[in-house]
Structures are given as C-alpha cells and as structure tokens.
Specification:
Blueprint: E1 2-7, E2 11-17, E3 23-30, E4 34-35, E5 41-43, H1 45-62, H2 64-67, E6 72-77, E7 95-96, H3 104-111, E8 114-119, E9 125-130
Length: about 160
C-alpha cells in the first residue's frame, strides 16, 4: 500500500493506493489562496501542514485496515513555490505560490520576456526567449497548445 499526498493549489488530497494502482480510500480539503492587490498570491504553510495532518489522521481512522499495510509515501505539490524558513525550519510568513506575478516585471527586464519551448521542424524542439502567450502562458513541450483549452494562436506565433 502507498499513502499518496497531493499539496495542490486549491485542495490538499490524501489517498491510500494499492501496489496495483487501485484507489482504496481518499479524502480532500479545499485550500484558500490569499490574493494581494499588487499581484501576489500566497498560502499559509502552517495551514498546509495542519490540513495534511488532519487528512491523514482522518483517512487512516476511516480505513484502519490499511494503516499497517502502508509501505511507501508518495508526495506531490504545486510547482515553483517559495517558503522562507528560520533556523528551526519554521515558516517566516506565507508561501509565495506559482501564481504570484509580483516579480514578472523584473523577470521580463532581465531576460527580455519569458522563455518558451516550441515544437520545431520535424521532431526537434526550439527554445525561444520571448513573451508568453497572454492567455495560455508558456506552452509545454509535450502539449504546445496547453489543451484542453482551445488554442487561439498557433505554437509558431506564441512568442510574437
């Protein structure tokens, strides 16, 4: 059995999954985002920990037969977040999450736009430095149009 934990942007989830990938039990709680007037987006890491602790305790209490069979813990989390901590590892404040745009003007000034990865000729990939697409952001090398959203521009002109 595997205890799977997901610290998502808008929800934290916990699940017990068999070695064959069968979902045996799960639970989740929504997470709030703190939006600041200057483009900041933050979350309280103390709330993350309290929520994870509560979810795991509740999950294992509701399915005690799985508790002793858990052999691994898998964790996933939102990308590009920052949590400043003190010498004891305690958060100094809220986490700055990936949606925060306060640094965008400085990044644009430093690199002349935002990097993007585009499908090139044949099967190669072309790395370009340019502006991100205003709706879809930076395209993925696997999914250049960021589906399931319908593309309004082709990957070849995202950097224009």
């Amino acid at each position: 059995m595997i205890l799977a934990l997901d610290l998502g942007t808008t929800a934290i989830k916990a699940a017990v999954v068999s070695a064959q990938g069968e979902l045996l039990a799960w639970d989740a709680e929504p997470q709030s985002l703190l939006f600041t007037p200057d483009g900041g987006v933050e979350q309280d890491p103390r709330v993350w920990w309290a929520t994870l602790t509560r979810l795991v305790q509740r999950l294992l209490a509701s399915a005690p037969e799985h508790r002793d069979a858990i052999r691994a813990v898998g964790c996933t989390a939102q990308w590009s977040g920052t949590v400043a901590v003190d010498a004891a590892g305690e958060p100094l404040g809220n986490a700055i999450v990936w949606m925060d745009t306060r640094g965008a003007p400085y990044i644009a000034e430093l690199i002349g736009g935002f990097p993007s990865l585009m499908a090139g000729k044949g099967t190669s990939l072309e790395f370009t430095w340019g502006k991100a697409h205003p709706i879809f952001g930076m395209p993925s090398p696997i999914n250049p149009t960021n589906a399931p959203y319908p593309p309004t521009r082709t990957p070849s002109n995202y950097h224009n």
